[in-house]
Amino acid sequence: MNEKKNATANEPLIHLSKRESISIVKSWLIRLAAIVLGLVVCGLVAYILSDKLRSGKKTIFDFYHSFLVKGSFSTSRKMWKFFKNMAVLQCISLAVTPAFRMQFWNTGAEGQTLMGVWGAIAVAFYLGGKVPAALLLVLMLAAALLCGALWALLPAIFKAKWNTNETLFTLMMNYVAANVVSYFLVVWVPSGSSSLGKLPFGRLPSVVHDYFLIIVVAFVLTIATFVYLNYSKHGYEISVVGTSVRTAQYSGMNVKKIIIRTMIVSGLLCGLTGYLIAAGLDQSITTESVGGQGFTAIMVSWLAHFNPLSMLLTSGLITLLNQGAAQISQDFNVSGAFPDVIVGIILFFIIGSEFFINYKVKLRRRARAVRKEDIK
Length: 376
Fold this sequence. Notes:
Elements lengths: L1 H9 L3 E5 L5 H26 L1 H5 L4 H14 L2 H26 L7 H19 L5 H30 L3 H23 L23 H20 L1 H11 L1 H6 L4 H28 L10 H11 L7 H21 L6 H21 E5 L3 H9 L1
Antiparallel strand pairs: 1-2
């Protein structure tokens, strides 16, 4: 009995064990609880930092209304903007997902998408007004796809041939892409302003709404990517390579070919997104045309466990947080960094919830409980 007491006393206070499996419902309930807890903490931080909340000019309910409703759904314009931003983020998230499933950590979606924008704008700049409008849009699409694929192909070749670190390689390609755009802005705008302005050519037609076509394309790509990854031979090969390269090689798969092919697919999707930004939204280009969404897409894909359908929820959530944070900066007397703090708190809790989804946490049994068991 004393030995059991000592064993119990020497046990760690907290036991962690890997979950073998967890139901989808339970995992999403854990995520939902994390979001609710994060919102509570955000409310407390907002009350401490906002003069309007402390003075009573605004209530905590006004804060949550601005954050969760007013920023994204209070007007039709904001709703269209919400679905547009979500669609662009979803497209980039879909682009990185095939590579991530293969355990190829593509951190270069920002640069690949930016090069897609550059390819489309370059065609519009040099050929706008010289060829029919329909042909111009087709050429812009071809250029965007080619540039996006090329920017993804380079690190894929180096990885396949010489096993270079794909994370650093793709990350550095983002900066190269930004410098390429900066150079051509100097060439295209000799005045030195480096601001191209909105081109009068190369605009996608408006169907129902200016953003409707982009939203439809994102939805179709989501279904197509889901089918590709789960019900095609290529998708199966991607999964096998991601699970074990040795298993893939033993099965007779050409791993180098799969790496290159998969990254080309990712680059094509990034290029298509760049085309949507160029021809469907901006009709111009800056080094910030993608707006950091290439990096945000990594989190969207990871939180969805690389499931294209689940990404609709995660991309929607991230977009909701970003637009809500922007609305807070308008409605409350807070510093410019406060909206980013709010988004960071929510994301911290969401990411933290993944730990409890993957691991069980057990506390040490009390010595009294052990003694009762010994008596029995």
